[in-house]
Every structure is written in structure tokens, then in C-alpha cells.
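FW: tagging you since you asked about this chain on Friday. Here's the raw sequence from the shared folder, copied in full. Didn't touch anything.
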Amino acid sequence: MAFWGQEISANAASNRVVRGYLSPRFWDYLDATTRGVDVGFRPALEPLASDTPTPNIKLDGIDFQLASLPGGGFCPILQPVNKDVFTNILVGHQVQMYTFMEDGCPVHLDEAVKGVCKLTLTDRYFGNEYLVPWTISNGVAVASRAM
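HL: got it, structure written out here
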């Protein structure tokens, strides 16, 4: 239900952050000695780059594989076929690049998408407001939110 975070409360040195429970973004503080079936350890999972990605899109002259994280919704993953594309970008760093298109029009990420199956990714520039925010992790770019 909830999991322990690493942050310590400024008000009480014995309190630690717990996250989850009511929603993925919910957090609160509990005494570090608290024990119960509804709070525990949750490992952090990162998508791993495939050893042999099959390119299905070319952006800025670079071959990528565009896929989605498993689970509900479409959460894009952009994996370069050439392993050294993101090597100079720190893990966890956010970058904004590329734009999703729907029916030939750029998609603003705050707007609802009609049909995920009709989306295409382009390297054409339509303005900063259309650039997708990605988080670099393990040599792949993971969209910061599902569409």
C-alpha cells in the first residue's frame, strides 16, 4: 500500500517519508519504527535497454525503437539502436525533444488524445509547447507521463 522513502522530516528526526497508499503522488511522514502490513519496501524499477532493438522510427537521422511501458495507457519509450546516443546525458535528467502528431497536427501534451494508435512521432519543430518531456534512464528516453 505505502512504501518508505529516504527523506527525513525536518520536524522530527525519527520520522521518515512514506509514499503511495491513497495515490501514486501521496506522501506523509511516519515514525521510522512504525511496523504494519500497509507500509513496506518497494524496489525502484527502471526500464532496461534491449540488447537488440529493432528500429521502427528515424528521428534526426538516428534509428530508434518506439515502444510503450507495459501496463495501462500509452507511456512511450524511445530506445536508440546506437547505444551511445544518450551516454552524455545523466540518468534521471529530463530533456524535451520530438513531437507527437495526430492526424497531421502536433499534439499538445495537456490535451486528450483521440486515438493512441494514430500517433506518430516527428522531429519537425512546432514550438516548445509541443515537445515531449523525456527522462533519460539506462540508455533510453522514457516519456515523463502517459498519453
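FW: The two ends are 25 Å apart (CA to CA).
HL: agreed, and Residues 57-143 form one domain.
FW: great, closing this out.
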